From TrEMBL:
Name of the protein: DUF1573 domain-containing protein
Coiled-coil ranges from the UniProt annotation: none
Record's signal peptide: 1-20
Keywords: Signal
Top-level taxonomic group: Bacteria
Metal-binding among keywords: no
Length: 323
């Protein structure tokens, strides 16, 4: 399943007395085998941890058994019912054997839990690029990324099957023409239009004839199909009666109309550049404070686009009274 950095995990029932084995179960997994990988790239993995107790978890430190791996907690205090992660990054150029990660807990009680990362690094295996990257993919539209997998000095190498751990990611491998002593395959991944907005990570697994299972990391960044720039309006300090204007650019995947604007009043107004459909719409936000205090509201703009048809723009200003 595609996973988002620090995705929420299922909250377990609260426990009373804790044992080391119970603390280990807070992690969604404790061992990560990256499989067969080229020697060169930096591999990343998140060990997710969820707090199932009724008190905060405090992580005192994270250390590793080898300098080829770095590890850290995404946050040191985890409130009840919430999740965090231990981020592990392996430098495959320096890696030679399985590495242990030691996570020290200070609360609910002092304890240490061990995690482990491992890989089978190969000098004769090359992936170009090193990651299947979907950069700034538009929500609602499918996209493709590809990587060339090359093996040198092994004419018997074949990719038998290419699979993804996510139903939103399909993948196939095709033989490609290689240079002398090179056996090459092109791995093509297609990300579904249904991948949610956000940054996501996944794995593609390649079953091969001579190298076992090869892992290809996947990175996906999905942007809303409707975007606003700037996405928020922070005006700082203003005086009563002072006026300011800010142009906001709305961009869509196709020509669209602005149907409705809410969140405005006599202090905050929005003017459209026109009523016709365009792929880019320009709005002018005017702010004229009538009273002192905080202006803090959200302008909601609805369009006739399908899918991502609404964008919200926070507006904030601190208004001081006139001298």
């Amino acid at each position: 399943m595609i996973r988002q950095m620090m995705a929420a995990c299922l909250v377990l029932a609260s426990t009373g007395m804790l044992s080391a084995s119970e603390m280990e179960t807070w992690f969604s997994e404790r061992v990560k085998d990256f499989g067969t990988v080229p020697k060169g790239p930096v591999l990343t993995h998140y060990f997710r941890i969820t707090n199932p107790t009724n008190q905060p978890i405090q992580i005192g430190g994270v250390r590793v058994s080898c300098g080829c791996v770095s590890a850290s907690a995404t946050q040191n205090t985890i409130p009840p019912g919430q999740s965090a992660a231990i981020l592990a990054q392996m430098d495959t150029r320096r890696y030679s054997r399985p590495v242990t990660i030691f996570v020290t807990f200070l609360a609910p009680r002092m304890e240490e839990v061990t995690l482990q990362v491992m890989a089978n690094t190969r000098l004769d295996l090359v992936m170009n690029p090193e990651v299947l990257t979907f950069s700034q993919m538009t929500h609602g539209r499918e996209a493709q990324a590809r990587v060339r997998v090359s093996v040198y000095g092994d004419p018997a190498f074949r990719i038998l099957k290419a699979t993804s751990e996510s139903t939103l990611l399909s993948v196939e491998a095709k033989a490609a023409a290689g240079q002398s002593s090179e056996t090459a395959f092109d791995v093509v991944a297609t990300a579904s239009a249904q991948v949610p907005v956000g940054r996501w990570f996944a794995d593609v697994n390649l079953e091969t004839t001579t190298m076992g299972k090869i892992r290809v990391p996947v990175s996906i960044e999905v942007l809303p199909s409707l975007s606003a720039a700037p996405s928020n309006l922070t005006l700082g300090s203003m005086s009563m009666g002072q006026s300011t204007e800010q142009r906001v650019i709305l961009k869509g995947p196709e020509p669209f109309k602005v149907l409705q604007i809410t969140g405005v009043d006599d202090q905050v107004k929005v003017t459209k550049s026109g009523d016709e459909a365009r792929p880019v719409q320009v709005l002018t936000i005017s702010v004229t404070p009538k009273k002192s205090g905080l202006i803090d509201r959200t302008i909601r703009i609805e369009t006739d686009l399908k899918g991502d048809k609404v964008v919200e723009i926070p507006v904030r200003a601190e208004v001081s009274p006139n001298p």
